[in-house]
Every structure is written in structure tokens, then in C-alpha cells.
Amino acid sequence: MKNVLITGGAGFIGSNFVRYLLRNEPDLQIINLDALTYAGNLENLSDLPNIERYTFIQGDICDFSFVKQTLEKYQIDTVIHFAAESHVDRSIVGPASFIQTNIVGTFNVLQAAYNTWSKSENKNNFRFHHISTDEVFGSLFSTDPAFTEITPYDPRSPYSASKAASDHLVRAYYHTYGLPITITNCSNNYGPYQFPEKLIPLIILNALQGKHLPVYGDGKQVRDWLYVEDHCEAIHLVLKKGKLGETYNIGGENQPTNIEIVNMICKFLDELKPASSPYASLIEHVPDRPGHDRRYAMNIDKIKNELGWSPKHTLANGLRETVEWYLSNIDWVNLITSQNNYQNWLNKNYQNREEIK
User: Distances in Å between the alpha carbon of 199 and those of 2, 258, 303?
Assistant: First the structure.
């Protein structure tokens, strides 16, 4: 890798990966292409190390000509494709943007990468890496085995369906055209710089403001939680050592219920920033969202056995570090939550939900 294009590098996982590469790859030039939609913010990149090796470009992956010109101008040899609409709740309310960004946008980035690779004099040094999700596999029953890389796709929401389509496109470009690709399917990420509409930062911030802590349904939905720094390390390893055309599952090796996650956050906040009453008293169960998958679980034996990766963070220490980060970065929180119609979205998503007694 010499000249790396990261799409969506101002978002949560993308910005963490930009930082990771700048710390761990001293010879790289990084080009960050981001449309700066509601979930992408330059504040996520305000204190980067080795800034002389970093260039930001604002642009939309749905603009094919722009993406193609960017790859050509910066002589890109590695594309790492994070850019996506990623919030299930938003996909239920407005699926059109998910189809446009996740499917059409991915097609544009693939086609631009293919054009660049096909004209390259050193095709062996080119790579297209696609970031996907465990949600493409659908929902598991409590006794079902964990998802593997060959689990059939069974998406249940507009978000997961659009990501499944993008995965298929990436594989098609490998099998049809020979474009050198790898794919990773990750579980739920958490950590610094996550936009506070997602469960963990939402619960932290609502608790600090004394607001109710909304938990969908009975709160017993099961997820695998992956600390974002561990995810970045795994992606980097796949880029360096992963086999072309292959998919690797990345997970945190845990399966707590959502209500357990919320109670853990409340426990850490009780310790780190005590209030007049336990934060858990703010928990309110609200009606479940449509098509809510019951359980995800990730089998990560492949990346363990082939590449030697496993997560460094346990759920407890990763979650504690996350709570501490949000407590220490209130200025970032205040700036993010004051922009992009954040409060309007929360009101829209929760205004018709009443507490389940």
C-alpha cells in the first residue's frame, strides 16, 4: 500500500481507521473521501497524528465521475470502502438513501476501482477492501450456531438488504472481472467518536442528561460487540495478509443482551459520575422496532486460524473505556448533538413510543 483511498473516513469506524493507519503505516498517503452527511464530521479527525500524510476531500460516492477522477489524481492503489448508511432505524423510516448510497454508491466505487486497476502497470499491488456487517446473515434463534463466512444471506431490514446487495456486487467484480478484493463482515462496533444515535452512546448521553434510557421490547435481543480499535487492527491484518476473494468475519466474542449492555453502562456511570439516584432507574422499555432481529453471533475461527487475529478488548474493559471517553470529550458530544438535526431525529424515532408497563 502506498496511496490509500478511504471512503467514509469521517464517520465512526472510518475515522478510527484513519487514525490507526497513520499510527501504524509510516509510509502511506491517505486520501479520505467523505460526503459529510449527518454521521460524518471533521471533528472526528481534528487531532490526527502525522497530518502531512493525510488529505481530506469532500465528495459523494454516488458521483461516479468524481470518484474516478479522485482515484486517478492520487494514483490510488488501495481502496478501503467504509462509506455507507448504517442505522437500521433510519432505514425503516427512509430506505431510499440506503439503496442509493449502499448499492449505487458501492457500484460507483467498484467501477472506478476497476477502471484504475485495469490500466495499472502493477495490478498485483492493487486491493479493494469492502467493510460489511453481520446483519446480512439475518436473525438467529437461541440454539442456532454462530454465523460463519458461508452462512446464507437472509437480510431483514432495508439497511441489511442494501449491505447484502453491496457484498454481492463486490464478489461479482472479483469473479467476473478479477478485481482483487477482500470483504470483512463485522459485528456491532462501539468506542470513541460513534454518532450518538446508536445504542451505547445514546444510553451514555441520555443518562448524563437525566433522560429516559429507551430499550426496545424486552431488551433481550442478543448482539456481538466489537471494540472499534480491535476492528481496525483486524481490517489492517486482512489488507496485509488476507487471501484475495475471501471474506472474514470479525467479532468481539461475546453475546450479551441489550438490557445487559444498558445495565453495564449504568454501573460504570454510577462509579465514574454518580448521580442522586442509580442511572438504571431511568431505563424504560419501549415498543420494539419493526423486523428487529433477535440474535446475532459471530464465528471468527477463520480469521483466528488463518491470520492469527483475535480481539484484545473484553466487553467490560472496552465498554468502560468507551464510557470514560465520552465523559472526557463532552465538547465533542455537545458539538455533534447540536448539529445535523440530531434532536429532531430522536424525537421522530421515539415520539410515538410509549413506555411498556
Answer: 36, 9, 27
How far is residue 37's CA from residue 137's CA, in Å, rounded to a whole number? Answer: 27
**Tens digits of residue pLDDT in 19-37:** 999 999 999 999 999 999 9
Catalytic residue flag (residue 159) = yes
Q: Which residue is catalytic, options 25, 34, 89, 134?
A: 134
Bridge partners of 58, per DSSP, are 34
Let me know if 197 is a catalytic residue. Answer: no
Rounded CA separation 261/265 (Å): 6
Percentage of the residues of the chain whose pLDDT score is greater than 90? 90
pLDDT tens track for 91-123: 999 999 999 999 999 999 999 999 999 999 889
Domain extent listing, the chain: 3-194+225-256+294-313
Residue 162 CB neighbours (<10 A): 26
Task: Tell me how far apart the alpha carbons of residues 24 and 35 are, in angstroms, rounded to a whole number.
Answer: 26
Class of 3-194+225-256+294-313 in CATH = alpha beta
As a whole number of angstroms, the distance between CA 25 and CA 23 comes to 6
For residue 24, with 0-12 CB atoms within 10 Å meaning exposed, 13-18 middle and 19 or more buried, which class applies?
Answer: exposed
135 is a catalytic site residue: yes
Q: Of 60, 89, 159, 230, which residue is the catalytic one? A: 159
Residue 117 cell numbers, joined: 486497476
Give the relative orientation of helices 12-24 and 228-241 as an angle to the nearest 10 degrees: 60
| Candidate list 135, 224, 230, 293, residue with the active-site label | 135
